[in-house]
Structure formats: structure tokens, C-alpha cells
């Protein structure tokens, strides 16, 4: 493992095979979800890979924030999440200037309360966090 301790596969100029793998995975996902690749000039679908769960959550929330601003003019974004949501949602809101609205869960089942989640929604809501295990 020492031979790779100072390497970082996030550098596609050094690791072209990683860039190729990402392009292939994104292409497969676009096919799976009927997306037209932006490079084709036909559509707006695109993608990228992240290195783990927290980074994936951060990038998704940033995308929601940016899309809400561009398409709906939302400048004071809010994210609704049950109190049991992953801590990365708190981090994302802090990083990206989003108001986190934490909604209490059922104290017996620890499940999100759909009625409370819906009641928390406003015109500034950019996303509602849910989980389906």
C-alpha cells in the first residue's frame, strides 16, 4: 500500500483509466434513466462520481440549491429532514448556506412523520430528505 500512499485517483491526467471508468458508469446510468448526454447536443443530462457517502450527499444538496436558484429564483433555500437523517445533511446546509428544518420523528418507531414533513414545506423548500431501506 505504500506505493499508492501519495497518489490520488481524482487526477484524471495521471489516471486516465479512472476518467474512462467514470465516463462509462455515467453513460450506463444515462442509458438506464433515459437521459440524453449533454455532450451529444441533444440533452442536459450529465453525471459525475463521488468518493463516498458524505461527498455524495454534499454534492446532491449543492445541486438542489443551485437548481432551485436557477429555475425558481430561490435565494433563501430550506432543506427539510427528519431528525434521524445523516449528519452530512447538516454539514451540507452549513457549507452551502441552506436553512435546515429538522422535523421530529415518531418517538416509538423512529420513522419520519409525513404529515409533519409536509407541514414544514414552504416556497423556499429545495428538497425533502427521505429514506427507503
List the main descriptive attributes of the protein structure presented here.
2 domains, single chain, 133 residues, alpha/beta, Aspartate Aminotransferase, domain 2
Short description:
With 133 residues, this protein is an alpha/beta fold. The chain has helices at residues 16-32, 53-72, 87-96, 114-119, and strands at 78-82, 99-103, 125-128.
Strand order of the largest sheet: 2-1-3
Number of helices: 4
pLDDT averaged over residues: 88
Low-confidence regions: none
Q: Name the CATH superfamily assignment of the largest domain.
A: Type I PLP-dependent aspartate aminotransferase-like (Major domain)
Strand content: 5-15%
CATH-defined fold name of the largest domain: Aspartate Aminotransferase, domain 2
Give the overall silhouette: globular
Class of the largest domain, according to the CATH hierarchy? Alpha Beta
Rg calculated over all Cα atoms: 18 Å
Annotated CATH architecture of the largest domain: 3-Layer(aba) Sandwich
Quickly count the domains.
Answer: 2
- Ends: how far apart? 35 Å
Major β-sheet profile:
3 strands, parallel
Structural classification:
alpha/beta
The succession of helices and strands, N to C, reads: HHEHEHE
Helical content band: 25-40%
> How many strands in all?
3
Amino acid at each position: 500500500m505504500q506505493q499508492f500512499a501519495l497518489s490520488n485517483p481524482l487526477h484524471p491526467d495521471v489516471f486516465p483509466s479512472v476518467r474512462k471508468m467514470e465516463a462509462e458508469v455515467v453513460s450506463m446510468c444515462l442509458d438506464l434513466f433515459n437521459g440524453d448526454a449533454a455532450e451529444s447536443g441533444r440533452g442536459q443530462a450529465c453525471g459525475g462520481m463521488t468518493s463516498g457517502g458524505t461527498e455524495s450527499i454534499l454534492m446532491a444538496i449543492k445541486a438542489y440549491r443551485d437548481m432551485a436558484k436557477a429555475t425558481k429564483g430561490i435565494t433563501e433555500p430550506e432543506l427539510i429532514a427528519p431528525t434521524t437523517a445523516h449528519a452530512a445533511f447538516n454539514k451540507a446546509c452549513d457549507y452551502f448556506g441552506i436553512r435546515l428544518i429538522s422535523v421530529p420523528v415518531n418517538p416509538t418507531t423512529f420513522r419520519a412523520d409525513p404529515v409533519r414533513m409536509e407541514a414544514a414545506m414552504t416556497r423556499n423548500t429545495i428538497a425533502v430528505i427521505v429514506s427507503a431501506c
